[in-house]
Write a structure and sequence with these properties.
By secondary structure, the protein is α/β, with parallel strands linked by helices. The protein has four helices and four strands; from the N terminus they run E-H-E-H-E-H-E-H. The protein has a single domain, classed as Alpha/Beta hydrolase fold, catalytic domain (Rossmann fold). Strands 1-2-3-4 form a four-stranded parallel beta sheet, with helices on both faces. It starts with 10 loop residues before the first strand and ends with a helix.
Length: 145
């Protein structure tokens, strides 16, 4: 049995590489009624930029996107027209916080960042502050119950 849920009652959440899929979904489905908002947790700007960080490249975030790059959130975030909550751990070594900061800078819609102290890539979901912030975003900013 198919059930219909009003998209204005849906909030998408993508973590790490999943946040790139979330932004891609929003881009591909832009002709449909959009969800209420989106939460991007530890979002990479692009896959090659994450690898650049892993091999010690320092200035790779400012460079134009390479034609071989995939999962390029930084070049698509401007197409997201719904409220965005970006959550990033300050101690994230896998996808450094600079990625989240750039995502916030490039977005054209309202972006609310939450920079989580003492949180890394693999433990951010264990932080109480993250879930409190998500709850606040949904209930107070998006006005969903």
């Amino acid at each position: 049995m198919e059930k219909h849920v009003d998209p204005s009652r849906i909030v998408l959440l993508g973590f790490s590489i999943g946040s790139t899929a979330t932004v891609e979904l929003l881009k591909e489905e832009k002709d449909r009624k959009p969800p209420a908002g989106v939460i991007l947790q530890a979002p990479p700007t692009s896959l090659l930029r994450v690898f650049g960080n892993m091999i010690g490249r320092k200035k790779h975030l400012e460079k134009p996107t390479c034609c071989l790059d995939r999962f390029v959130t930084i070049d698509k975030i401007h197409e997201v027209t719904i409220p965005i909550l970006v959550i990033h751990g300050k101690d994230d070594k896998t996808v450094p916080i600079e990625h989240g900061e750039l995502i916030c800078q490039r977005a054209v819609t309202k972006v609310t960042p939450e920079w989580v102290p003492d949180a890394a890539h693999d433990n951010i979901e264990n932080c109480r502050v993250v879930w409190k912030r998500i709850r606040k975003f949904i209930r107070e900013e998006l006005k969903l119950k």
